[in-house]
Amino acid sequence: MKVVRITRKNEDFYLYMGKIFGSREIEKITHDRFYDDEDKIWYVIEDRAAASVKKDIIKNFWAEDDELADAVLKEIVSRENIKGGVLPAVFQDIYRVNGFSVSEYSRNFVEVTYEKD
C-alpha cells in the first residue's frame, strides 16, 4: 500500500480526495467533515485512508482499517514535525501504538500529543 503526500495544488488532488470529501460514511465514522483547505498537506491511500496536517497539527484522520491507519500515521510522523491534534476517538488505539499520548476531549474525539525521541 502506498501512502501519497499531496496538497490541493497537485493536479490529481481531487482524483485522490473527491470521494473522501463527499463521503457520508466517513463522516459517520469520524464525526468530522473534511475540507480542502489550501494550506493542508494530505496523506492518502487512495479511497481507503486520508489524513491532513496543517503546520504541526493533524487536522483530519480516517482509514478503512487499523493497518491502513497505522501506515498513514507512520508516514506522517516520519515526514512532519507533529505536535498533536484533536482526532476521531475511534482510532485511539492506533494513535497510542504510534507513540501518541491520548486524552479524552469529547464523546467522539480525543486530544493527541506527540514528542519525537
Biggest β-sheet strands, sense, barrel: 7 strands, mixed
Q: Classify the secondary structure makeup into a structural class.
A: alpha+beta
Radius of gyration: 13 Å
The ordered string of helix (H) and strand (E) elements is: EHHEEEHEHEE
Q: Could you give the count of β-strands?
A: 7
- What is the overall silhouette? globular
Distance between the termini: 27 Å
CATH architect. name: 3-Layer(aba) Sandwich
Number of helices: 4
CATH class: Alpha Beta
Q: What value does the average pLDDT take? A: 95
Uncertain residue segments = none
Write up what this structure looks like.
- 31% of the residues lie in helices and 30% in strands.
- The chain has 117 residues and is an alpha+beta fold.
- It has one domain (4-113): Aminopeptidase (3-Layer(aba) Sandwich), CATH 3.40.630.
- The chain has a seven-stranded mixed sheet, with helices on both faces.
Write the layout of secondary structure elements.
Layout lengths: L3 E3 L6 H9 L2 H7 L10 E5 L3 E6 L2 E7 L2 H14 L4 E5 L3 H6 L3 E4 L4 E5 L4
Parallel strand pairs: 4-5
Antiparallel strand pairs: 1-2, 2-3, 3-4, 5-7, 6-7
Provide a compact summary of the structure:
With 117 residues, this protein is an alpha+beta fold. It is 31% helix and 30% strand.
Features:
alpha+beta, 117 residues
